[in-house]
Design goal:
The protein has helices at residues 10-48, 60-67, 71-84, 101-110, 118-132, 136-142, 145-156, 164-180, 185-193, 195-203, 208-228, 231-243; strands at 87-90, 94-97. By secondary structure, it is mainly α.
Length: 256
């Protein structure tokens, strides 16, 4: 009669399960590390080979051979690069370099649906102050009568806004038009990326009437300081305008 193998006790079961989980976690970590390493290799390849937008990357097979990587690792690395907005796979062409990094960053920022805390308000408005208040010298050097006329036209749109959301879009357009005066596309792109959270700040505790009265008047006063070339008054008016909503935001609760 053949002896049956001894039954594993609870302690042995637990040890085996722990070992299996650790081995699986280690495998996943190794795979992730391999993918990250390959992404870095491909970025180096792009730089060293002087590849530009529109150029093709090596084929999947060539990448596997060049970097001694498996097909799944290469495909995962390409997926990450597509998420970054630097690669697009085209039929019969393969992976081609593109530059949609700003669009991808905007998508990631727009995904944030959390409520804005007081700390976030301070951070975001602090960033906006660096552009719209602290950069006043650059703004005054570059602003033209046409710029100011455009800003007045945008501000007047508040008077016909139907909803608070419509009005907040006008508010954001006013400020992006002001930032555009500086003539720095990178700064303007970063500002636009932050639109979702800036819009939440603009909308907080406001009605369409608030926009058509208070916000409209504050913008008009800011434009008046630009027309008078009054740098001190501009800084005061814009800083007061950006800080106005502070009281409507609560302090973030500490993580448990």
């Amino acid at each position: 009669m053949t002896d049956l193998p001894p039954k594993m006790d609870d302690e042995t079961d637990s040890a085996t399960a722990t070992h299996s989980a650790a081995r699986e976690a280690g495998s996943q970590e190794t795979k992730a590390s391999a993918v990250d390493e390959l992404v870095d290799h491909i970025r180096t390849l792009i730089s060293e080979d002087g590849l530009k937008v529109g150029d093709s990357l090596p084929t999947e097979k060539e990448l596997c051979e060049r970097f001694h990587a498996g097909r799944n690792t290469v495909r995962e690395a390409m997926r990450i690069l597509k998420t970054y907005g630097v690669v697009k796979v085209r039929p019969k062409v393969g992976a081609v370099l593109i530059d949609e990094r700003m669009a991808r960053a905007f998508d990631l920022f727009a995904f944030n649906t959390l409520e804005v805390s007081r700390e976030t308000f301070v951070d975001i408005q602090g960033f906006r102050s660096l552009l719209e208040v602290a950069s006043f010298e650059l703004l005054f050097d570059k602003v033209t009568a046409e710029d100011i006329a455009d800003l007045h036209q945008v501000n007047k749109e508040f008077l016909n806004a139907k909803t608070a959301v419509d009005a907040s879009e006008i508010d954001f357009r006013f400020h992006t038009r002001l930032v555009a005066v500086m003539g720095n596309k990178a700064i303007l792109d970063v500002y636009k990326i932050m639109k979702p959270v800036i819009m939440k700040i603009m909308l907080k505790a406001k009605t369409v009437q608030t926009f058509s009265t208070v916000t409209y008047s504050e913008h008009a006063e800011i434009l008046e300081t630009l027309e008078r070339r009054d740098r001190t008054a501009y800084q005061y008016k814009m800083k007061s305008h950006l800080d106005a909503g502070f009281r409507h935001f609560e302090t973030a609760k500490p993580a448990e």
